[in-house]
Design goal:
Blueprint (H helix, E strand, L loop, with lengths): L1 H9 L2 H20 L6 H6 L1 H14 L24 E8 L10 H10 L3 E5 L1 H4 L3 H9 L3 E5 L13 E2 L2 E2 L4 H19 L5 E2 L8 H9 L3 E2 L4 E2 L8 H8 L6 E6 L7 H14 L3 E3 L8
Parallel strand pairs: 1-2, 1-9, 1-10, 2-3, 6-7, 8-9
Antiparallel strand pairs: 4-5
This protein binds zinc ion.
């Protein structure tokens, strides 16, 4: 279904059938030219090149007009009037962001609070054991936070001094190679994508959709990149309304995120809220 969606989405099934030999030649030529190829790309194989070319053909000439966290196509809420909240936690994997908030995750497990975990490829290596354990727990779902944690652009736009992906081809690497990495490790392909910095142009959102992902924004800034104090985190979470999606971080154990969430959850429950994963309800 998912795979079918992707193939239909970019119309590559015919291409796949007829051009595989040509693509294999192209791959060989690329390797001979001595261009650097990431380990993920190398193991992705010829089918991957076909997929990437299909996306480039479809979106290569599109000119984005929007840039931000809530551009067209980004889902920011659960489509429900019930008192449901989705807690989403990012693991970003920058040099200073390789930590694992064991206290926070242990709390969620103990209290049976579902969450959607947006995992960047770089974070997995140093946290392999925690990653595997979380992925095996049905309370959590693993989502895609990119290969290199880049803002999702088809033109190389930057935000916070971080350069976005420079074109649709690099964006395919950013989204698809981490999706494949996660699928290889967990047996499940992620269904949701959030870019590094959560910035997009609207064409980039369409590219992620063509690769079978819903793009998950947020309606509540839970910890502002793990910079909030305990009190600020709690205050932010208590602004939840039916259908809120909270963004916070699981890779900065020294910050106020865990204590703030642990303070807020019992109060939210008292107010009648329950927590769900993004896949539990439609998004809007
Ligand atoms: Zn991040």
């Amino acid at each position: 279904m998912r795979k079918g969606g992707v193939m239909t989405g970019i119309g590559t099934s015919m291409v796949a059938a007829t051009c595989l030999a040509a693509v294999l030649l192209l791959c060989t030529a690329t390797l001979r030219a001595g261009q650097s190829v990431s380990p993920e790309e190398k193991s992705a194989g010829a089918g991957y090149e076909v997929l990437k070319r299909g996306v480039v053909e479809r979106f290569g000439s599109a000119k984005p007009r929007e840039w931000g966290e809530t551009v067209t196509g980004v889902k920011t809420r659960l489509n429900s009037r019930e008192k449901v909240i989705a807690l989403t936690l990012d693991a970003c994997g920058s040099r200073s962001g390789m930590g694992f908030d064991a206290e926070l995750l242990a709390f969620l497990e103990r209290e049976k609070i579902p969450a959607t975990l947006f995992i960047n490829a770089r974070w997995i290596g140093p946290n392999q054991e925690s990653f595997s354990r979380l992925a095996a727990n049905p309370l959590f779902e693993i989502a895609n936070h990119g290969l290199g944690h880049k803002p999702a652009s088809v033109t190389g736009k930057s935000v916070y001094g971080i350069s976005g992906t420079k074109d649709p081809a690099e964006l395919v690497d950013e989204v698809e190679l981490n999706a494949r990495k996660i699928e290889a490790l967990t047996g499940r392909r992620p269904r949701f994508y959030r870019s590094g910095t959560a910035y997009y142009d609207e064409v980039a959102v369409q590219v992620a959709q063509a690769l079978g992902h819903q793009v998950a924004g947020f309606s509540i800034l839970g910890d502002a990149g793990a910079t909030y104090t305990r009190e600020e985190v709690k205050k932010a979470l208590l602004t939840s309304t039916p259908g809120s999606i909270i963004i916070a971080h699981m890779n900065h154990p020294q910050g106020g995120t865990a204590p703030g969430i642990m303070d807020a959850v019992p109060e939210l429950r008292k107010l009648g809220f329950r927590f769900v994963r993004l896949s539990d309800l439609p998004l809007k």
